[in-house]
Design goal:
This protein has about 230 residues and is of the alpha+beta class. The protein has eight helices and twelve strands. It has two domains: about 150 residues, Sandwich (Jelly Rolls); about 80 residues, Jelly Rolls (Sandwich). The strands form three sheets. The protein has a four-stranded antiparallel beta sheet. A hairpin with a 3-residue loop joins β11 and β12. The termini are far apart.
Length: about 230
């Protein structure tokens, strides 16, 4: 008999594009093995060096994937919102975590999915492996694009690229405007774009004075994406 918890897990698993077409029986079996977890704001989900035994599906809130330099500076690699898989390199051979995952300004709700249960699905449905390769490939291309931006673009361009990417990935379109609701601090944006908090503040204020954006602590409104740059 399927419980309410398993039904909820199944509904979220079906929202992952490459899982949504799998037979209901297989996804139900996977849902039964998932564990729901709630993590308080600004708390670790896993640390670099932890055993990589599970992947996670983010149901509510926001998560940052990050590393730290030798002098303690945070480098944010990804900022994720619902419904996103992360911590997934264990299914392709990672034994220990190579990065850290922290919740951001909101409490987070997760599904913890055993790697072996996910691998079982891949072995049973060979087409799924190619879907996952494509998915991992798209993430790698985004990472490479960010690396190129860090090398060849100035701070202002990187911050504007961040705003445009956020609008396209998670913004709600209202006419020519895009509303981005978020849980980021300006320091988070700086750590993601390889700039400083002071630079982020300066660029955001400049764009607001030019009537290109409006922002507060919880949202950014981009008035015209094409005019942004």
């Amino acid at each position: 008999m399927t419980t309410t918890r398993e039904t909820s897990a199944l509904a979220f698993l079906r929202q992952i594009p490459f899982l949504g077409t799998l037979p209901n029986s297989d996804l139900t079996e996977l849902a039964m093995l998932c564990q729901s977890e709630q993590v308080q704001r600004n708390s670790p989900i896993y640390h670099k060096g932890d055993v990589s035994s599970h992947l996670f599906l983010l149901l509510r809130g926001s998560v940052k994937i990050c590393s730290f330099s030798d002098d303690g500076r945070e480098i944010i690699k990804e900022m994720l919102g619902p419904v996103t898989l992360f911590g997934d390199l264990g299914i392709v051979g990672e034994k220990e975590r190579q990065e850290n995952a922290f919740t951001m300004q909101d409490d987070v709700q997760l599904l913890r999915i055993p790697n072996e249960a996910f691998r079982k699905l891949i072995r049973k449905h060979t087409a799924l492996s190619m879907d996952i390769v494509d998915w991992l490939g798209s993430r790698l291309r985004r990472t490479e694009a960010r690396l190129e931006a860090l090398m060849f673009k100035d701070a202002r361009e990187r911050i504007i690229d961040f705003l445009k990417d956020s609008a396209e990935q998670q913004g709600k379109k209202i006419g020519f405007e895009f509303l981005i609701k978020h849980s980021m601090t300006q320091q988070d944006i700086a750590n993601y774009t390889g700039t400083s908090r002071q630079t982020v503040t300066s660029v955001l204020n400049e764009l607001r004075k030019s009537n290109l954006i409006y922002f507060n602590r919880r949202s950014i409104l981009i008035r015209d994406l094409e005019r942004l740059g």
